[in-house]
C-alpha cells in the first residue's frame, strides 16, 4: 500500500505526523469542555402567565385554553400541554426535534402577543422561555447567620452575593431561594376607612397616580432650552404618609389617616431547608456551552474571595450540592477504566507476541489514537462526557486490534526469513485490505448510531462519532507507525530460537499451549467441514434457544446508577401554608439524617418542578460509595417506610441520572369530561396498585382546594354602580397585596411599595364583609357613595381543583409510578394488559409515557440503526470481496453474537436497556472482523492454487492466533467497565456485559460456522454456474480460437477426499434423515396452523413471546428443508433439469418449424 511504503521509506515524516497528532490532541485536551452528559437540545417552549388570585379553573378558561388554541397551528408542533395552578398558567409547546429552538420560540411569541390585549386586566405579561437542560443548578449554596434577620440577610445576598456571582464567567443565573426581599408595606386600617367614609379603591388610585415624576414640556429662549418636570416622587418612605388619598367636605384626607407605612419585607413564597434548619439558598446555573467544572470552580473561588466579608457580617456559607463532583468522579472513573483496560490489553499482546519490542510497537497505537481522537472530537464540538469517554473506553480493544493484526502478520513474514523492511511492507500489504474492511465495517455500524433520530439519537451522536474517529485514526497509525517501527527497530525476540529469560520462557510455554490449540482447531475445522449439516443444525438450535431466553432477561430504559444522591418529591395536603409545609419538611430532614449513609439533606419548597406551597424537592446527598454498604436503590424502601410514619405528607423517590427525574411509568388519562377521566383514573389506580413491584403510585387528581366565592347581587350592584372588575381589583389589592408604586433609595436600589390589609383582617371573613368601597355615584355633597361588600355580594364557601392539566387540548389526569424489584418492561406489559381489560368511559383514552415510552422509542430507533448497520456492512464486504455471496458467510456471525449477549446479560444480572442495545449494535461491526480475516486469507490461498477446503483449513490455522488475540484484547479491555458497580459505571456496565458475551459466542461460532457456510456458498455457486449467462466469445478481427482444455478431475472433491477422509460429502443413510424430516414436517405444519391464534390469547409476556415463536418456527422450517431437501435433492434436481430440457427442446422444435416454413 502506498501509505505503508511512504511511512517505511520516510521514518522522520512518519514520526512528525504522530507527534502532530499528539500535540493537537494535548492542546485540545486543555481546552475541551467537560460535562456529565452530552449536550442535547429540546425544542420546547414554555409560556408562563401569572393571574394573581385566580382559581385554577379560571386560569384554564381565561389563559391556558386561548394560548393552546393559538399555538396549535404552529408548524412542527409535536404536542402542547398546560397546567393551570392557583394564579398561574404554564403552557408547554413541544416541537419535533428537527425544529430549531430559536425559531420555535419566535413562533410562540408571534402567536401569544396578540392575546395579551384580550386577557383580563390583572393578568401579567406572559413570560416565554426556551427549555434549557442547563437550568439544573450546577451549584447550590446555603447561607445562615445568628446575627442578622432573614430580611437583612436577603438584602445582603441580593445586593452583594448574587450580583457578584452573576458576573462570574460561565454563570447563567444565580437565583435566591427562601429570601424575604425588602419592600415598603402600607397597611390599610379598615376601621378608619369606615369612620372617614373613604373607599379602599380611592386609596389605591391615589397611590398609583401620586408617586411619579412627569415631563411637562420645556421652556425655550434665545440661548437655551430648559425641560419642565412635575416632581411627585417621594424621597423617603415616610413621605407617603403625607399623600392626599381623598377629600370629604373640602378637607383633605391623608394616607396617615387611614393606613400605616413600614419598611418591611415581602412574604416569602419559597423556602430552603438545609439539614433541618431554615436557610437562605442560592442556586447557580451555567450557560449552555460553559464547562461545568470550570464554572463551579470559579464560583467557589469567588465565594472564597468574599470570605473575610462573610466573617465580618457573621454569615456562614456552605456548599450543599456540587454538580462538578459527579462530573469529576465520572471522568476519573472512566479514565481509570480506560487505563486498566489498556494495561490488560497490552498484557494480552505480550502473551501472544512474546516480545516487549513488538508489544511497545503495538501499544503505541493506544495513546496516539486516543489523544488524536480528542483533537478530532474537539473540532466537532463534542465534549468530554460520559458518552464520549465511554466510547474511548470501549474502543480500547478495537484501537489495538488493527495494530495487533498488522504486527502479528509482520512477525510471521519475519519468520519467513524476510528483512525487516520487506516484512513490514509485505506483511502490511497482505493484511491491509482485510484491516481496512474491518475498520470500514465498524464505522458503518456507528454512523447509523450517530445519525439516529429522537432523544436517543442526540444522546448517542457523540458516542458514534467518537468511536468512528478513534478507529479511523487507529487504522492510520497501524498503516504508518507500526510498519515504520517494525522496519527500523530490530526485534531479536521475534526469532524463534532466541534465548529468553524467565518471563520469556513462561510466555513461550503459553505460546506452545496456544500452538497445540491451533493444531486442535485444525482437526475441528476438518470435522465440521465433513459434517456441515449437523454443525448448522446445532448452531440454529442454539440460536433459537437464546431467542427463547430473551424474555427472561427483562427490559428497561436504563439501569439505576449510584450517583451518590437520592431525589424526592414531598407533598403536603392541598391548601397547606408555606409554614405548615416547612414544619413537615423539617421532620422529613430530621428522619433522613438518621440514616448512616446520608451526608446532608437539602430541601426547596415551591421551586422547580414542585410548584405550589404544598410541594417540595428534597436532595439527599450520600456519603462516598466506599463508606456505605447500601446503594440508593437499596435505600429506597427503608426511606419510604420511614417517611410513611410522618403524618400529613406523601413522599416519592424520583429516578435520577438519564431518566431526568421523571417517573418511570406515566399514564395520561385523557378526555373532555373531567368526572369521566377522574373515574377512569381511579379504576386504573386501583388496578396498578395491585401489580407487584409498583411503588410511589400517585395521581394528579388531588383533593379540591377550598375557596370563598363572592357571588354578585347583580341588581343591588347595578343600582350602586359596582361592577365585577372594580370589586375584584380592590379585593385583589387589599387581600392579595398589590404593588401600587415604587421607591428608589439614594444608592439606586428600587423597592416595591405594597398596599394590603393587616394579616388579622385578611384571615377574618367578617372583616372582609364590612370592607367599604366607593361606588360610581355621589351624595348630595358630591362625595362618593360608600358601600359594604356584603351589600353587593354573597360570600359562599366552595371548592375548586388544585390544578388542571391538559394535553393536546384535552383534559388530563396524570398517573405516575415507579418500579423496584422487577424489570420495567415486565411491569409495563402488566399495565398495558390492565388498560386493555379496563372498561373505560366513552371518550376517555390512555397514553403511556415516561421511561416506558422512552424504552419503546429506543427499541424502535435501535432496530432502525441495526438494519442500516447490517445493510452498510454488507455493502462494505461486497465491495471488499467483489462478491455478492461471500459477505453472507461473514455476516453469519452477526446473529450468533446474540447467543452470547443474552447469556452475558443473564450471568451479570443486567437487562436489555439503552446501553446493552448499543453494545449489541457495536457487536455487528466487531464480530465481522474475524470472518473477514478468515475469508480474506482463504481467498488469497485459493488465488495461490489451493482448493477451497484446503484453503479454509489453512486460513483457519494461520488466522487462529490473530483472531483469538484481538478478541481477547477487546474482552479484557472491557473487563474494568464490566466490573464497575459504583457511580455511572454501573449504568454503563450492561454495554460491556453484552459486548463481552457476544464476542465470546461469535468468535467460537465464527471459527466453526463461517467455513461451513463458505463451503455451502461455493457449492451453490458451482451448482448455478451452468445457468448463469456466459460472456460472449470474441469474434473480432484477428481473434484466435483455442480449443477448450480437456476436463480435469474435480480438484476440490479430490482434496476433500484426501484432507477430510473418504466420507466427506457422502450423505448419511437416507432412512433416518427422511424419517426425521417427515416427522418434523408434520410438526411444522401444525405449528404454523396454530400460530395465528397466539395473538388473541391472554398470556403474560405475549409481546416478547411472539417474536421468539416466529424465529422458532422459521428455524424448524429451515431444518425440515435441510433434511428433506438433502433427501430428495437428486429428484428435485432431475425434475428441474428435465423441465428445463423439455422447454429448450420445445423452443428448438418451434424454431426449426419456422425455418422450414
CATH architecture verdict of the domain at 182-265 and 706-800: 2-Layer Sandwich
| CATH hierarchy, class of the domain at 182-265 and 706-800 | Alpha Beta
Question: Multimeric state of these chains?
Answer: single chain
What percent of residues are in strands?
15-25%
Measured on Cα atoms, how large is the radius of gyration? 39 Å
Number of strands: 30
Largest sheet geometry: 9 strands, antiparallel
What does this 3D model show about the protein?
The chain is an alpha+beta fold. The protein contains 39 helices and 30 strands. Among the domains are: 87 residues, 2-Layer Sandwich (Alpha-Beta Plaits); 99 residues, 2-Layer Sandwich (Alpha-Beta Plaits); 179 residues, Multidrug efflux transporter AcrB TolC docking domain, DN and DC subdomains, CATH 3.30.2090; 79 residues. Helix content is 56%, strand content 17%. Strands 1, 2, 3, 4, 20, 21, 28, 29 and 30 form a 9-stranded antiparallel sheet that branches. Strands 5, 6, 13, 14, 15, 16, 17, 18 and 19 form a 9-stranded antiparallel sheet that branches. The radius of gyration is 39 Å and the shape is elongated.
Task: Give a nutshell description of this structure.
With about 1150 residues, the chain is an alpha+beta fold. Helices cover about 55% and strands about 15% of the residues.
Chart the SSEs and their pairings.
Layout: H1 2-9, H2 11-31, E1 44-50, H3 56-71, E2 77-85, E3 88-95, H4 101-112, E4 127-130, E5 139-145, H5 150-166, E6 171-177, E7 182-188, H6 190-196, H7 200-210, E8 214-220, E9 225-230, E10 244-248, E11 251-254, H8 255-258, E12 259-265, E13 271-274, E14 277-286, H9 292-305, H10 307-313, E15 315-322, H11 324-353, H12 356-363, H13 365-379, H14 386-394, H15 396-415, H16 420-450, H17 454-488, H18 502-530, H19 532-548, H20 550-553, E16 565-571, H21 578-593, E17 598-605, E18 615-622, H22 632-643, E19 650-654, E20 665-671, H23 674-689, E21 694-699, E22 705-712, H24 714-720, H25 724-736, E23 738-744, E24 750-756, H26 759-762, H27 765-769, E25 772-778, E26 784-788, H28 789-792, E27 793-800, E28 804-807, E29 810-819, H29 824-837, E30 845-849, H30 850-881, H31 886-891, H32 893-908, H33 914-943, H34 948-978, H35 985-1024, H36 1051-1060, H37 1070-1090, H38 1102-1127, H39 1129-1156
Parallel strand pairs: 7-24
Antiparallel strand pairs: 1-3, 1-4, 2-3, 2-28, 5-14, 5-15, 6-14, 7-12, 8-9, 10-11, 13-14, 13-17, 16-18, 16-19, 17-18, 20-29, 20-30, 21-29, 22-27, 23-24, 25-26, 28-29
Helix pairs in contact: 1-17, 2-13, 2-17, 9-11, 11-12, 11-14, 11-15, 11-18, 11-34, 12-15, 13-15, 13-17, 14-17, 15-16, 15-17, 15-34, 16-17, 16-30, 16-33, 18-34, 18-35, 19-32, 19-35, 19-38, 30-33, 32-33, 32-35, 33-34, 33-35, 34-35, 37-38
